[in-house]
Write a structure and sequence with these properties.
mainly beta; Maltoporin, Chain A; 5-stranded mixed sheet
Length: 626
Amino acid sequence: MYRLWLLLLLLLMVSPVWAENDSIKVEEVVISATRIESPVEETASSVTVITEKDIDKKQTMTVADALKDIPALDVVNTGGYTSVFIRGANSEHTLILIDGIEMNDPVSASRGYSYLSTITTDNIERIEIIRGPQSTLYGSDAIGGVINIITKKGKGKPKLFVSTEGGAHKTYREIAGVSGGNKLVNYSVTASRVESEGISIRNGSGDPEKDGYINTDFSSRIGFTPTENFDIELIFRYIHSISDLDNSSGVLDDPNYILKYKQRFFKTQASFIALGDVWEQVLGFSISDHHRTYSNDIDADHPVDFAKGSYDGNVYKIDWQHNFYAGDFNTVTAGFEYEKESGKSDYYSESAWGPFSSTFDEKTATNRGFYFQEQFKYKKFIATAGFRHDGHSKFGKKNTYRLTSAYTFDTDTRIKGTFGTGFKAPSLFQLYSSYGNESLQPEKTKGLDIGIEQRFFNEKVSAGITYFYNSFKNLIDFDLSTSKYNNISGARTRGLETFVEYAVTEGFSARLSHTYTDTLDKSTGGDLMRRPAHKMTFDGGYKDKNTAADLSISYVGRRDDKDFSYPYPRLTLIDYFIVNIAASRKITGNVQLFGRIENLFAESYEEAFGYNTPGFSAFAGVKLEM
């Protein structure tokens, strides 16, 4: 393994011979780690931004695919579900947003979001990943980090595009969209459909049946600016997916086990600037609606097995944010949030063991949050201090805080550090279901990171290393001794994130990163499952006006997992390499051809025990712009 990474490092060192030796100024990337737009150099948080250009170069189809190469973030697919682990935290410890709308499902057992594979990259401008506790600004569910998906804002003359592609596993994708804007109105609307025969979720011998899927995605963002200091936006996204599943954690075939999932996300917000450019107000209202149904009819292989279930969850949220800009050196952000969530479910099954039913009557919970953040900047020093107070209808009051700072020396050396606390409220299911416990306390965390970055050769080369540490308490888990959810466990994660990046020319760049993660499950004394100790990625890309190409190589190290068949032995999954390549070319001013190969060397691997992954896969398509 080490020989490959030495070769990749050598490629970074010799790459200047591949292109002109231009002096490149690294472009500032605008992010929202502080809930206001800021250059990346003005935040001390550990942030990664996936841009629209990154998505186009790699030709990633879903958000789950786009996240796989992100440092300190591990993506695990288990059939129709996707888990993300940021710095070793549990998947439900990551808050997923789309244009600020919460996507976490209130009726899921732990209130996580496990369906990133259903969100296509259509109409996405960028994806921001913020690592570490973020409860001070984002409240519950953000104790491990935040993933914020930001859709495109239309501008300029009307543009229409259509695109189609096909490839491995009888996969077909069609997309159409229109965008544009002027001083009064802007709009960006996209619709897509993906159909695939898929692969077998089951990873076993014989000739397993394939588990296909259909996904329809509609995204729109429309804005109005009646005056220079006032604007209104309407944001809507609808996702309808149908996925074939298998039984027993994916290791037993089932030809008619189907998940249907409808998701609706809506937000309207108004922004107003008063007192010149000093006071900005943003008032928003959002709705998240989740509707899942499962059906598993009797079939020849399962003549006595039948199951059906439905799950409905909603989140309504009002947020009112105020930003006060006191010159270039000080910004104060204060806001109020009110959130109401509700959920219900109904499940029924029949088997050789007899009938079983579980009904979860509709339950609700509310939360009121007040947050305050001070951002200070003086020359090359920046610092933030934030505080939040939450009042939950069930567990009461909770306070969190966060401190950050960074300083850049004249030698282009930058040091940064953050420390914060976080909490996660128990889910409705954990509180009120037949397995619930209304005495549950919120999960808590403390997290810090310290890093140093250095730029060389007129900012063409940059390198950095960051140490992180997180401690989790009161973790909620299912207690087999009581058949109830209890606060029974704790965990600790720590590690190092390192990178080297080379901007060779304006169109060509390469990046090499490595993440080391050490985890401890305090209830067992072992490692947390499905978190690799080592993860490495290399990405080299080229893009000019008409051509784009990308080579990505990722390595995922060994990690613990569990066989969920009795007696549930613990095991170790082998490490693996994945190589992907993608290229596109405009053959005329408005016609583009593109293609990609995933898993170039047909690596055989598992992201989770018992679950299959695609082998060598090739795709190609054409895009027409008007």
